């Protein structure tokens, strides 16, 4: 598997991470609906479409509220670059989220 957001950004909010207890576990680290997307674990390589992720030291809201910030994130740009023509755009990922129940 490729590296996930919590591995690159080192937020410590993955299950068992150094900040999981005090800040909570990041939804991207446990949301299985996008498991294996872009070669990641759970939503770890599609965090920008998951509400409640922790970026820039604060919890982010819904996709609509956070997407602009996410597109300037180095991890987002890294995934997009690594995936090339296999990159699944956000609209496709949002459709997958809406079709699959937690």
Characterise the protein shown here.
The chain has about 100 residues and is mainly α. It has one domain (about 5-95). The chain is built from 6 helices and 2 strands; from the N terminus they run αααββααα. It has helices spanning about 5-10, 20-25, 25-30, 65-70, 75-85, 90-100, and strands spanning about 55, 60. Strand 1 (about 55) and strand 2 form a beta hairpin. The longest helix has 10 residues, at about 75-85. It is globular, with a radius of gyration of 12 Å. The two termini are about 20 Å apart.
List the helices and strands and how they pair.
Layout lengths: L4 H5 L10 H4 L3 H4 L23 E2 L2 E2 L3 H9 L2 H10 L6 H10 L3
Any descriptors?
102 residues; mainly alpha; 2 strands; globular
| Count of runs of 4 or more consecutive helical residues | 6
Strand content: under 5%
Can you tell me the overall shape? globular
Q: Helix-strand pattern, N to C? A: HHHEEHHH
Uncertain stretches:
none
**Amount of helix:** 40-55%
Strand ordering within the main sheet: 1-2
């Amino acid at each position: 598997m490729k590296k996930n957001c919590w591995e690159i950004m080192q937020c410590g909010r993955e299950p068992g991470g150094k900040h999981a207890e005090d800040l909570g576990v990041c939804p991207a680290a446990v949301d299985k609906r996008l498991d294996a997307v872009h070669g990641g674990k759970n939503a770890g390589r599609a965090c920008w479409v998951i509400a409640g992720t922790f970026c820039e030291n604060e919890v982010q809201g819904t996709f609509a509220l956070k997407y602009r910030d996410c597109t300037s994130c180095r991890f987002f740009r890294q995934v997009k670059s690594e995936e090339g023509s296999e990159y699944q755009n956000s609209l496709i990922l949002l459709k997958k989220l809406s079709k699959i129940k937690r």
